[in-house]
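Render this sequence as a predicted structure.
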Amino acid sequence: MERLNHLIEAAVERGDWKPVTASCGGPPIASLFFVDDLILFGETSLSQARVIKECLDIFCQASGQRVSYHKSSIFFSNNTEENLARIINEEMEIPRTSDLGKYLGMPTLNKRVTRQTFS
């Protein structure tokens, strides 16, 4: 997984991979690695989808590992045009989701945090 992280960092440094920021002036985020899970972040465009897929393909060829696309999910922000989301979804061949669910029992939030969230 460290090799995949190096591939992602190199793509970001070259300007090929456009990471996201969680807040104005916040640090750019391209990936979050967990024990056996990975969350990838990128600008919503077909070119970005291809860069992400290329990094994954290079890693798989080098490591002999495979991405479980049927166990993976792709999530789009509410600002994404439906047609663009559909095109990217088809390119990535990853099931689309509108709910990120939970990770290790905690909700993976995709909306504003409120008092109810903490309840």
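Summary. The helical segments are 2-14, 46-63, 82-92, 115-118. The radius of gyration is 15 Å.
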